[in-house]
Amino acid sequence: MITIDRTGPDGNVFCILGYAKSAQRQLKAAGAENETIADVLKNFMSMDYEGICDKLESTGLFEFTDGRDDEDEDEDYEDDPEY
After folding, report:
1. Which of 27, 51, 59, 67 could cross-link with 47 by S-S, CB 3.0 to 4.6 Å?
2. Contact 10, 24 (CB under 8 A)
3. Which of 11, 32, 14, 13 shows the shortest CA–CA distance to 23?
């Protein structure tokens, strides 16, 4: 699985499309091709950023994160006197 941080340098659409092309090449070399990735690569100009990410994520080969660790989401600020 390819994990991409949307907020990092790999999160721009051109980098994501590069990962998609690379994944497609590797799948093709292994004798398998993913039609969803091929569709994204063919039609990306008519898709928005979220649509590209959602479609690639639906393949099960890509995971997109927002740059936060799971631990960040679980922090309890109620016990912190500054908040």
Report:
1. 51
2. no
3. 32
pTM here? 0.72
The secondary structure element, H or E, covering residue 53 is: helix 49-57
Domain boundaries defined on the chain: 2-65
Q: Tell me the angle at which helices 35-43 and 49-57 cross, rounded to the nearest 10 degrees.
A: 170
Quote the Cα angle for 12-61-49, to 5°: 30
Q: At 23, which amino acid appears? A: A
Q: CA-CA distance, 29 to 43, in Å (whole number)? A: 22
Q: Are 58 and 36 in contact (CB under 8 A)?
A: yes
- pLDDT tens profile 13-29: 999 999 999 999 998 89
Q: What is the CA radius of gyration of the chain?
A: 17
